[in-house]
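ok, trying the design again with the full structure, not the truncated one.
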């Protein structure tokens, strides 16, 4: 019997009852970096809205490294934005000591704005 294209490429089959099912495995990734909250959000976005990109990354074995890079970029952008916005609005440690409740309100607002920007620019793009 002639070999199939799958067998010529090094694939094998397993017999399940009367059927031969191909043994499919995903390629192993070189690096196994942790994926944080930003990477998980981007993964969910890709899985729900960009299925082709998600599937291509998954089957090529590059999904985790891609998500770890996205997570790192988003984390850096978030902290940089929070720092810049706090400096621009005068939310300092002296202000925190003088009026802790107002400082908390302003910092929460700054963090929410920075999170919205990161989501728009990196996560849902």
């Amino acid at each position: 019997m002639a070999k199939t294209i799958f067998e010529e490429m090094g694939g094998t089959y397993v017999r399940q009852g009367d059927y031969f099912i191909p043994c499919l495995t995903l390629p192993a990734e070189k690096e196994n970096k942790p994926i944080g909250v930003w990477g998980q959000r981007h993964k969910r976005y890709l899985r729900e809205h960009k299925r082709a990109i998600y599937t291509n990354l998954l089957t090529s074995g590059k999904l985790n490294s891609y998500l770890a890079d996205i997570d790192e970029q988003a984390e850096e952008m978030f902290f940089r934005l929070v720092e810049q916005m706090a400096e621009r609005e005068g939310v300092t440690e002296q202000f925190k000591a003088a009026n802790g409740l107002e400082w908390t309100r302003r910092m929460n607002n700054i963090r929410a704005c920075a999170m919205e920007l990161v989501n728009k620019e990196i996560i849902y793009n």
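Keeping the full-length input from now on. The CA atoms of residues 82 and 113 lie 8 Å apart.
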